[in-house]
Amino acid sequence: MTDASDATTQDTFISHLMELRTRLLHAVVAVLGIFVVLFLYPGPSAIYDILAQPMLSSLPEGTRMIATGVITPFMVPIKVTLLAAFVLSLPYVLYQAWAFVAPGLYRHEQRLAVPLIISSTFLFLLGMAFCYFVVFHTVFSFIAHFAPQSITPAPDIEAYVNFVLTMFLAFGVTFEVPVAVVLLVKTGLVTVKKLREIRGYVVVGAFVLAAVVTPPDVLSQILLAAPLCLLYEIGILAGAALEKSKPAEEDPADQASSAVTPQDEP
Known about the structure:
It contains twelve helices and no strands. It is an all-alpha fold. The longest helix has 39 residues.
């Protein structure tokens, strides 16, 4: 009996690994497919020029960015194009992640799939857009005006891209705060009352996080910490609305559906 149980457990574990491999493969193929399209048109150079525009607009007239590495002028635009491909394929990547975990959830939790994917994608892109159109222009202009007149700034393109990727990730993840708060309330891990009680700690944590992630200037820290606090409040409001409409008990049919594993799906 024990041997049969162990064999069943092992088969289940292997089937989960195969399912995970399939989902990851689909996500990677989607990213690479979009990368090939972007590589052909408009091309890595054009995509990098768009990304570099906030920095170029803040530099003195006639100043350009530099590349100190031998293959940097080739590799950096490729890296930027790969980032653009990932961003464009983000809804499909999130869908693959959700499809992997959904069979182990209750039916009413599975209904969150479409709203969760749409809201997560929208907020992540909104965070990147806020960083590109507001933060970059503000911070780069501030640095350019603060720099001494005796120097001519000439940023390295690799250092610039690494900085941009860090900032995009920081702001994209930060703008996911409402989704995280709603999920915490939905799963019952945290109540709205508790979220309101720890508001002060969240504000302090937001500024500490901003100080670690952003450049060492107060302006960048405020531009990250302020939206984080605002989005936390939005998450509390959404969580409160969700908490009022939350059913008192789980449907027995939902409990049965939670036991379904990926291999049991038709």
